[in-house]
Design brief:
With 88 residues, this protein is mostly beta strands. The protein is 12% helix and 32% strand. It has 2 helices and 7 strands; from the N terminus they run ββββααβββ. It has helices at residues 41-44, 48-54; strands at 2-5, 10-13, 19-20, 27-28, 55-58, 61-66, 69-74. It starts with a strand and ends in a 14-residue tail after the last strand.
């Protein structure tokens, strides 16, 4: 619980630390530190038929061929240190 003090009263607000994992479906009692997307925005916004026609998938790589152009995407991880947190 977190308390917020106003001029006339103290308000208690429940604070939830945790998240439901999209990968495993379980609840984890910690901050979500690994955020990611299944597909690049340019691929995700395509309908299913266009995605099947224009996108080649290989692991963490995507190739989008559309309108005479080819675009390449690589899924990556960037580690950003958070002060006061211990390494996992």
């Amino acid at each position: 619980m977190r308390a917020i003090v106003t001029r006339s009263r103290v308000i208690s607000i429940p604070v939830t630390t945790g998240f439901q994992c999209a990968g495993c479906g379980k609840w984890h009692d910690e901050l979500p530190l690994d955020l990611g997307y299944d597909e690049p925005m340019y691929v995700a916004e395509l309908d299913e038929d266009e995605r099947a026609r224009c996108v080649t998938k290989f692991g963490d790589f995507r190739e989008l061929r559309r309108d005479g152009e080819t675009h390449h995407f690589v899924r990556g991880v960037i580690e950003i240190p958070i002060l006061g947190m211990t390494k996992r």
